[in-house]
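Q: How do we represent a protein-ligand complex in a form that can be generated token by token?
A: Start from the inputs.
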Amino acid sequence: MKVQYLGHSCFLLTTSKAKILIDPFLTGNPRAVTTADKVSADFILVSHAHGDHYGDAVSIARRTGATIVAPYELALHAGAQGAKVHPMGCGGGKDFSFGRVQLTIAHHSSSVEEGGKAVSVAAPAGFLIRAEGKTVYFAGDTALTMEMELLGRRNVIDLALLPIGDNFTMGPSDAAEAARMLRTRRAVPMHYNTFDLIEVDPGIFKKEAEKHGCRVDVLQPGESLEL
Ligand code: NI
Ligand code: MN
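Then emit the structure tokens for the protein with manganese (II) ion bound:
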């Protein structure tokens, strides 16, 4: 499968059966290299309701007819705006046309802004995505957590997409420890250097994770790797 980084936490996975877009945030992303009206998708996986993840999901779903796969209350929120949705719950897995998606625990928050107030919508999640014989773990926004040890014990993870930007999520060192706990063969950092608050050096993550035998590809927005 082709894994393309679209900046921040947005990835496009292309398999022979479907295009899977994760956490689309292009509108308002200063480092985006494409726009929401140009992206194609069959499925849109959304980890939580914050604007830098959920931002363009509904508009892309409405334009393309893609199905939004998200934690239950977030799926309802998207469905109420006219998107086709598939709700899931943490720990639950489901087979789709391209493969399997399982929702994983993320230690974070999840809210939308309504009238200047943050309104909680669903518990945040991550995703284990199995397609074409490969397993990709998308951590979402999360702290380092012992749950990752369990994920590494229960799954053979070929690629982990991990937030490293600090302040709102794991920083580079904790993310390197996450890579070790997940026993992943390969990792790509995300959720950093989009805004001042999450400026970090991805080289710190790469150096520390590679000490654990994990290959790290630091992708620039628009770049991709073949898995
Ligand atoms: Ni967030
Ligand atoms: Mn975020």
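The CA atoms of residues 65 and 84 lie 7 Å apart. The pocket of manganese (II) ion (ligand 2) is lined by residues 50, 52-53, 141, 168, 191 (CB under 6 Å).
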